[in-house]
Structure formats: structure tokens, C-alpha cells
């Protein structure tokens, strides 16, 4: 298949959180053999079943979005609590700052995208895919995570939590409006002068 690498949900790697407080599902990581302390970028989902601290990752920027559940309130570096729901835009924050989570009403599943500060950067966008749409793979690494069934025209169908790494522009479509996340990993922007 030209321009698409499929990452099936059944093949995602499950592992304990860095702080031991739960389980994470790793969708993709670079380098592919990287651990929790030496990745350049990482895309994962985490099931959060109780209130408590987030794992800290020195030198890493993180974006978080709620995929399932009622949501949670995050307190980052002792600041004001930020309430996040499934409809909230992705939240960008430093992964090396103390962060506490308080669940609103039961467990949640969240999306985590992390990149090594100063080495690479990222952008996370929520998409609503209708009958047909074009996705451009503009970043060196572009990853599509399906929350609902989505067909990559001429390629394959993605089911819930399947992902695809795109190296070329593709057409996607859904039988009904489908939610997905588009994750772009790229070199950091040069500093402003």
C-alpha cells in the first residue's frame, strides 16, 4: 500500500505507566525500540481509573485529549484546575511539570502525544470526517487515529482505535460522521528573532 502504514488496535503495546499508577497503550513511538526515557516522540492512550499524579517526563511537551468517559480536572504546576471533556480541545502542557488529575465521574481514556522538547514538536487536531475528505500528510510523520470506523479510500478500513501513518495525501470517508485525531510530528519551529 502506497503512503499508508496501518497500526491495528490489537497490535498496540500495553505497558505500565512510568509511575506505576495505571496502564498505557502505546500506539506508536520513535525510535521504534525506545523506552519511556529515550523516545523522540510517542503516541499513546491511557486508562485513568483513579485520581492521582501524572508521570513526569523531563524535557518533554505533552498534548492530552479525552477519548472516553466524563472527563477530568487537571492541576498543572499548582495552577487553577482545568476541566477537560471529550469535546474539549487538546491541551498542550509541559510533561515535566507536576500534574494532578481528578476524575469527574468515573474512569476515562485519554490520548497522549509527547515529543522531546527542542528536538521535535507536534500538533494534535480533532477531525469530524463526513462522506469524504482529503487529508494531507504535510508533516514528516502524520498519524490518523480513528475513534469511529473510517475508510482510507483505495486502502483499508480503520476501526475504533486503529491508526494509520500517512506518508502521502489520502482520501477518507465514513458511512456516518466519524471522529478521529490527526497527529503531526515535525521538527520544532526555529526560535523567533
What does this structure look like?
The model has no long low-confidence stretch (mean pLDDT 91). The strands form four sheets. The protein has a six-stranded antiparallel β-sheet, with no helix packed on it. A five-stranded antiparallel β-sheet has the order 1-17-14-19-12, with no helix packed on it. Strands 5-10-7-8 form a four-stranded antiparallel β-sheet, with no helix packed on it. With 193 residues, the protein is mostly beta strands. The chain is globular. It is 0% helix and 52% strand.
What is this entry, summarized?
This protein has 193 residues and is mostly beta strands. The protein contains no helices and 19 strands. The radius of gyration is 16 Å and the shape is globular.
Helix content: under 10%
Beta-strand segment tally = 19
Strand order of the largest sheet: 2-3-4-11-6-9
Quickly give the structural class: mainly beta
Biggest β-sheet, characterized?
6 strands, antiparallel
Uncertain segments are none
Instruction: Give the H and E element order.
Output: EEEEEEEEEEEEEEEEEEE
Total count of helical runs of at least 4 residues: 0
- How much of the residues is beta strand, in percent? over 45%
Provide the gyration radius in Å. Answer: 16 Å
What's the N-to-C terminus distance?
43 Å
Summed over residues and divided by their number, the pLDDT gives a mean of 91
Principal-axes geometry comes out as: globular
Amino acid at each position: 500500500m502506497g503512503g499508508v502504514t496501518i497500526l491495528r488496535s490489537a497490535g498496540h503495546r500495553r505497558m505500565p505507566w512510568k509511575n506505576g499508577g495505571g496502564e498505557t497503550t502505546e500506539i506508536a513511538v520513535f525510535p521504534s525500540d525506545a523506552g519511556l526515557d529515550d523516545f523522540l516522540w510517542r503516541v499513546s492512550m491511557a486508562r485513568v481509573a483513579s485520581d492521582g499524579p501524572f508521570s513526569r517526563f523531563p524535557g518533554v511537551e505533552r498534548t492530552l485529549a479525552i477519548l472516553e468517559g466524563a472527563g477530568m480536572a487537571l492541576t498543572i504546576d499548582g495552577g487553577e484546575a482545568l476541566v477537560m471533556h471529550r469535546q474539549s480541545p487538546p491541551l498542550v502542557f509541559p510533561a515535566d511539570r507536576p500534574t494532578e488529575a481528578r476524575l469527574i465521574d468515573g474512569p476515562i481514556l485519554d490520548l497522549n502525544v509527547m515529543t522531546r522538547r527542542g528536538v521535535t514538536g507536534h500538533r494534535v487536531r480533532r477531525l469530524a470526517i463526513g462522506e469524504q475528505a482529503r487529508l494531507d500528510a504535510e508533516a514528516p510523520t502524520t498519524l490518523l487515529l480513528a475513534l469511529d470506523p473510517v475508510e482510507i479510500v483505495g486502502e483499508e478500513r480503520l476501526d475504533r482505535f486503529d491508526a494509520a501513518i500517512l506518508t502521502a495525501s489520502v482520501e477518507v470517508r465514513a458511512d456516518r460522521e466519524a471522529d478521529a485525531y490527526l497527529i503531526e510530528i515535525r521538527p520544532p519551529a526555529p526560535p523567533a528573532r
